[in-house]
C-alpha cells in the first residue's frame, strides 16, 4: 500500500473536494488529515491511496471519516456525562443539574443504539460482543471506537495501529513534547483491557495471566500493569486485523502473532500460553 499527497489547504472543504475528485476518478480511497503546527493555523492534507475502500461490504452510506466523527461524538457525550455527574454530587447543585445529567444519559443511550444499528453487520461488532469484559462484553461502544480510530488503509499493520493508540515502546507523554499518539485512545485501550481482565474472558484472560507470570518471573515491579499494557496492545492489534481483513486485505503476521478470538467460548492454545510464560516466540 502506498499513498500520496493530493494537496494541502487551510480550508477543509477544499481538501475534501480533492479527496472526492480522486475517489471519483480512480475508484480508490482518499482521506483528509488535519495538521496543526505550533504557532500556525490548522491545515488539511488530502491523501490518496492505491487501494480500494470496501467498507460498504458491511456498512452502508458512511465512510471511514464518518465513522471517526461518530466515534468522536460518542466519546464527547461520554465526557459530558461524566462532568455532569461530578458536578451533580456537589451538595449545592440545583435539581436542574441532576435532570441535565439524566437527560444526557438518555441521549447517550439513544445515540449508542443508533450507532449500533449502523455498525451491527461489521465483524468488529461481533468480536466486541463475544469478548467478555466487566459484567458483560466489550460491547457496542468499543466497536465504534475501534472502527472510528483504526483506518485500515492507513494502519495496514498492527504496529501502525498500536503506535497511533500509544502502545509501543517509549509511548509516554513528555512535558513540552508533542506526543506521536492519541493519549485519549491510550486511556481507552487500558480501560478496555482492564474490563477484559475483570470479565475473565475465556480467551484473553489466560493470555494475560501467562504474560503476567512471565513478567513476575523477571522481577518487574508491577507485572500486572506490564501485562495489562501488553493485553491492551493485543486488543488493538486484533481489532486492526479484523477491520483490515473485513475489506479483503491481508495482515502481516508479526513475531508471536496471536489471532483474534473467534467464538464466545474459545480458549487459547496451550502452546501459546507456555511460550508466553517462558518469554519464547512461536514461529
3D structure, described in words:
The protein has 2 domains: 50 residues; 157 residues, no CATH class. It has 10 helices and 5 strands. The mean pLDDT is 90. It is 54% helix and 8% strand. A hairpin with a 7-residue loop joins strand 2 and strand 3. It has 283 residues and is mostly helical. The longest helix is centred in the N-terminal third of the chain and has 25 residues. The strands form 2 sheets. A 3-stranded antiparallel sheet has the order 1-3-2, covered by helices on one side. A two-stranded antiparallel ribbon has the order 4-5. Helix 7 crosses helix 9.
Features:
283 residues; 2 domains; two-stranded antiparallel sheet; 10 helices; globular
Compile the SSE list and pairings:
Blueprint: E1 3-9, H1 12-26, E2 30-35, E3 43-49, H2 64-88, H3 95-119, H4 123-130, E4 132-133, E5 136-137, H5 139-149, H6 158-165, H7 183-198, H8 204-217, H9 223-245, H10 270-278
Antiparallel strand pairs: 1-3, 2-3, 4-5
Helix pairs in contact: 2-3, 2-5, 3-5, 4-5, 6-9, 7-9, 8-9, 8-10
Summarize the structure.
This protein is mainly alpha-helical and 283 residues long. The protein has 10 helices and 5 strands.
Amino acid at each position: 500500500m502506498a499513498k500520496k499527497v493530493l494537496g494541502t489547504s487551510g480550508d477543509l472543504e477544499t481538501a475534501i473536494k480533492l479527496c472526492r475528485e480522486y475517489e471519483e476518478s480512480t475508484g480508490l480511497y482518499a482521506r483528509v488529515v488535519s495538521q496543526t503546527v505550533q504557532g500556525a493555523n490548522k491545515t488539511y492534507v488530502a491523501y490518496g491511496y492505491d487501494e480500494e475502500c470496501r467498507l460498504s461490504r458491511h456498512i452502508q452510506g458512511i465512510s471511514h471519516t464518518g465513522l471517526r466523527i461518530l466515534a468522536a461524538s460518542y466519546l464527547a457525550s461520554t465526557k459530558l456525562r461524566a462532568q455532569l455527574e461530578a458536578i451533580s454530587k456537589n451538595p449545592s447543585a440545583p435539581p436542574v443539574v441532576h435532570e441535565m445529567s439524566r437527560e444526557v444519559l438518555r441521549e447517550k443511550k439513544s445515540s449508542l443504539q443508533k450507532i449500533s444499528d449502523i455498525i451491527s453487520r461489521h465483524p468488529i461488532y461481533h468480536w466486541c460482543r463475544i469478548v467478555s469484559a466487566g459484567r458483560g462484553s466489550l460491547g457496542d461502544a468499543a466497536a465504534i471506537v475501534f472502527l472510528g480510530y483504526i483506518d485500515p488503509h492507513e494502519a495496514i499493520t498492527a504496529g501502525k495501529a498500536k503506535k497511533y493508540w500509544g502502545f509501543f515502546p517509549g509511548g509516554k507523554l513528555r512535558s513540552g513534547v508533542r506526543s506521536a499518539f492519541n493519549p485519549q485512545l491510550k486511556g481507552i485501550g487500558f480501560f478496555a483491557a482492564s474490563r477484559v481482565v475483570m470479565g475473565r474472558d475465556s480467551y484473553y484472560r489466560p493470555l494475560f495471566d501467562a504474560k503476567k507470570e512471565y513478567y513476575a518471573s523477571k522481577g518487574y515491579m508491577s507485572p500486572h500493569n506490564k501485562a495489562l499494557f501488553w493485553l491492551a496492545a493485543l486488543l488493538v492489534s486484533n481489532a486492526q486485523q479484523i477491520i483490515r481483513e473485513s475489506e479483503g486485505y491481508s495482515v502481516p503476521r508479526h513475531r508471536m502473532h496471536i489471532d483474534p478470538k473467534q467464538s464466545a467460548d474459545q480458549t487459547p492454545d496451550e502452546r501459546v500460553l507456555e511460550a508466553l510464560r517462558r518469554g519464547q516466540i512461536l514461529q
